[in-house]
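Provenance and format

Records in this collection were gathered into a single text stream. Each protein contributes a sequence line and a token line. The two records reproduced below are adjacent in the stream.
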Amino acid sequence: MVSAAQVKELRERTGAGMMDCKRALEECGGDMEKAIEYLRKKGLATAAKKAGRVAKEGLVHAYIHGGGRIGVLIEVNCETDFVAKTEEFRQLVHDLAMQVAASRPEYISREDVPEEVINKEKEILTAQALAEGKPQNIVEKIVEGRLEKFFKEVCLLEQPFIKDMEKTVKNVITEAIARLGENIVVRRFARFEVGEGVQ
């Protein structure tokens, strides 16, 4: 059994995410050095450290789908012009544009979701749970679970990646950071669909 203290120590030593640290320790039977090696092999330790660096280069990419029925414009930033010109970075940006076209995210991350939108969603989910006859004492737990599902639907980084549903978009970006050696940030996107919003 892996302790929280072990996870915390590994996180401090590598800069990798909590769940990655927990998984690494479980895989390595609680051996700290093996877990560090495990994370290094996966490139997650260095990726987390790079996440704080400034990304001001990158690409703006246009993706048109369905014979011109859906269009996406996306800006993804990295640290250098050199990486922005690599085939791997270009492919990542293209994949992210396809993700936006297919999965219709409204925000980049949960931090971007306005407080009033979250409160309104909580209100709706609470009303639904009560209407289903759920006991008051577990309604809050149900709402929490459904709110997580809401974030996975509306936040690009939390969506399952269209090319590999086992990973989230955030996982895919983190892996690219590890391979390319630079911080990568989705700056903004816009999605257009013919007839959308027309009454």
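Adjacent record:
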Amino acid sequence: MLFTKMHGLGNNYIFINLLENTLEEEYLPTLARNLSDVRFGIGSDGLILICDSKVADFRMRIFNADGSEGKNCGNGLRCVAKYLYDHQFIDSESFTIETLGGIVEVHISEKKKEVEFVTVDMGEPKLLKGMIPMKGEPMTMTINEPFTIGENLYHLTCVSMGNPHAIIFVDNVHDVPLEKIGPIIEHAEIFPERVNVGIVTVKNSKELDYRVWERGSGITMACGTGACAAVVAATLNKKIEKNQLITVHLPGGDLEIRWDENNHIWMKGRAEYICHGEIKLEHFTKEKMLKASGQ
């Protein structure tokens, strides 16, 4: 089966086109774990499937490196949009993609021989605890709210962009041991579906530094939904103003984010190919995958 490996600012995934192929549903989590493994597979932050949709032009399914299925992925969306347009599955420069977190609209922003930049309408952020989800009064918001998690006190601002994010503001993102606090907060009892953990430094009124621990994948070079959540959280904490173009600096590069007057989040960034190849499915037979999953 053919695959394409792509990245958005270093957040890299293996993409399989299921518009023309099929895979058995039962084995997708284990396949994602095997393919994402850097030693015995291809190596990636996860697996993304490009599928038909009954409610949008296309559908995107995301499996994290640990095999769990994700709800949304901003960097993945840009890559899927580039793949579909470059491979002539659609000729319109604007189209819709279904995710578990909802339907989003994508726009081809800049192209030469191939698509270079994609802008995504990420929709409206969800701010209520019951929608993120997290424990507590479901109709209230979490804005700089103190929580004791493990042995430490954290002030969290929580946002869902189709997937849950907990944002922490710090003086310098590079001084924070994200590899230590990330998994602790990800698995905290207050988050029944786990959570992505973002640390943010406000550089000025139009720039943020951002690092992320992604649930199911760990530290990654970039997270599109997380960058959107960071802008929302900074706005809610009155550190920046709404309806401004904000540059979010991530380890893998920059994203341009705007929370507009209609409450929608717009994200613009690059999407790039790494390689194309062929997966030898005999290495991922049912028996081998069942053994790998401990069944």
